[in-house]
Design goal:
Elements: H1 2-5, H2 9-28, H3 34-40, H4 45-73, H5 75-95, H6 99-110, H7 115-126, H8 129-160, H9 164-184, E1 190-191, H10 198-221, H11 226-248, H12 256-260, H13 262-282, H14 285-290, H15 297-300, H16 311-317, H17 319-339, H18 341-361, H19 366-394, H20 400-428, H21 439-455, H22 457-460, E2 478-479
Antiparallel strand pairs: 1-2
Length: about 500
């Protein structure tokens, strides 16, 4: 494709990275502010938690359908629409004055969850083959970069300004990315004509929504409560119905032949594993760093662990991981043609497990946390980059968006399980009647995250070597040799 070769991949990658960082920033900026929402909006802890949960739910529900629409109507076009929705949701959140309005605005933000899979698809479509690995690695690294920066910036903003400014400042990179994508990114060169699979979208949305709702609220409702168990059982039944529907409709949202491919199936399993291990470790660090802050001397004696740090300090402890992800992600892409994605995934998972085991036995001194979090960054940077590469290598170009969307959803599910496991341990194992988490809660969480990562190593070699594309498209592919819209002059 000569037109594609004449485009500027470096500019495209920079713009997509801005879009991805803007999205991830909004995931983590709100985490330190949850108590502020509860106080300022006069609501309960449960409703304040929905500011985060609502974002997560809509993200999981819409990511795969929008990835499918990107394959059919153009990834750039759907990326512009997603960023537009994201910008509206971010501004609405900044203007919110009630908890209901804020939750709705956050749900609208989450509806832009396909930004990552659409960006991965554009990379696959636009970049020379030899540069795809490094580009995917850099784009994958923005997940960790945005997460770390979000925690640091949130602390800085909340110290001087109201929580509304989390969204006003957050809207700036979103609007910049929207304008740059609209004006400078060329349209994807291949399309797959398809009809919208209403029943597939409906059943997948209900199934994933019930699963993530049960995972997110299980701690508040009780893990053995009728509501929680009902969500899990209902999710299982509806997702089974989704699989049946997708085999019966003439134009499915997700061709089950793709999901049954060994490469795609086991890469999705790995996405759950790495999401679980990362969130089970990464998101626990701020709690450990801040533990002890503001406690009276008699209580501080009961919790000699923890560092009594501020929100900003907690974010700074995560910066080694952020830096390593930014370095290792692209480096993994460069090494992949020589070493292979499977071996690099193996090394990455081993690093994640090692980091978790280090924290299990050594978390009493700052240098121990810094070493462990740096090793974790190496592992996450490698695995995230290689998961994207394994999916890209395994599926045909015209289904990249939907396949990457499903992989992103699997990572979200794994992360939600890991985060809820952490929360359950922190509330189950406490120091007497103080309500403060016991040290056992941290060590058990780190230990389980490490075990899951190491068990996941066995799944790496179940991915076929080379992951050849075996999927035959259900529709004719329409090559777009001339980009449409504003990108035509690029």
């Amino acid at each position: 494709m000569q037109a594609a070769e004449n485009r500027r991949p470096g500019l495209t990658l920079t713009i997509l990275a801005v879009a991805c960082v803007a999205y991830v920033l909004q995931q983590t900026l709100v985490v330190p502010a949850l108590p502020n929402f509860q106080t300022d909006l006069h609501t309960s802890e449960t409703w304040a938690a929905w500011v985060f949960t609502g974002f997560l739910l809509t993200s999981a529900i819409v990511t795969t359908p929008i990835g499918k629409l990107g394959d059919a109507y153009g990834k750039r076009k759907l990326l512009v629409i997603s960023l537009g929705i994201f910008a509206v949701g971010t501004i609405a959140a900044a203007l919110s004055d009630t908890i209901t309005f804020l939750i709705l605005a956050r749900a609208l933000q989450g509806a832009a969850g396909a930004i990552f899979p659409l960006s991965f698809g554009i990379i696959r479509d636009e970049f020379p083959r030899e540069r795809v690995g490094a580009a995917l690695g850099l784009l994958s690294a923005t997940f960790g970069v945005g997460a770390g920066l979000g925690l640091v910036l949130s602390g800085v903003i909340l110290q001087s300004l109201s929580w509304h400014w989390l969204f006003w400042f957050g809207a700036i990179p979103v609007i910049i990315a929207l304008v740059l994508v609209w004006r400078l990114i060329p349209e994807s060169p291949v399309r797959t004509p398809s009809r919208f699979d209403v029943w597939g979208v409906l059943t997948l949305s209900i199934g994933l929504g019930a699963l993530l709702l049960g995972l997110s609220e299980g701690e508040h409702w009780g893990w053995s409560s009728a509501l929680t168990l009902g969500c899990f059982v209902g999710s299982l039944l509806v997702l089974a119905l989704w699989c049946w529907v997708e085999t019966k409709v003439s134009d499915p949202m997700m061709d089950m032949r793709i999901m049954r491919q060994r490469a795609v199936f086991w890469t999705n399993v790995l996405a759950v594993v790495v999401g679980f291990s990362m969130y089970g470790t990464y998101l626990l660090m701020p709690t450990l760093v801040q533990l002890g802050s503001g406690l009276p001397p008699q209580l501080r004696e009961l919790v000699p662990y923890g560092f009594g740090g501020s929100v900003i300090m907690a974010g700074l402890y995560l910066m080694p991981a952020t830096i390593m992800m930014l370095i290792i992600g692209p480096l993994g892409g460069v090494l992949e043609p020589r070493v292979g994605a499977r071996w690099l995934t193996f090394v990455g998972l081993a690093a994640i497990g090692t980091a978790a085991f280090i924290l299990t036995v050594a978390h009493s001194h700052p240098w121990q946390l810094i070493v462990a979090i740096g090793v974790l960054g190496v592992g996450v940077g490698l695995v995230y980059a290689m998961l994207a590469k394994l999916i890209v290598d395994a599926v045909a170009p015209e289904v990249t968006g939907v396949a990457m969307g499903m992989n992103t959803v699997m990572r979200t599910i794994g992360g939600t399980i890991g985060a809820q496991m952490s929360a359950a341990f922190l509330t189950t194992f406490t120091v007497g009647t103080t309500g403060l988490p016991a040290e056992k809660a941290f060590t058990l969480t780190f230990l389980l995250a490490g075990i899951v990562a190491l068990v996941g190593l066995s799944a790496v070699f179940l991915v076929p070597k080379g992951a050849p594309v075996t999927h035959e498209p259900m529709h004719d592919v329409i090559p777009q040799t001339e980009p449409a819209g504003e990108g035509a002059s690029v």
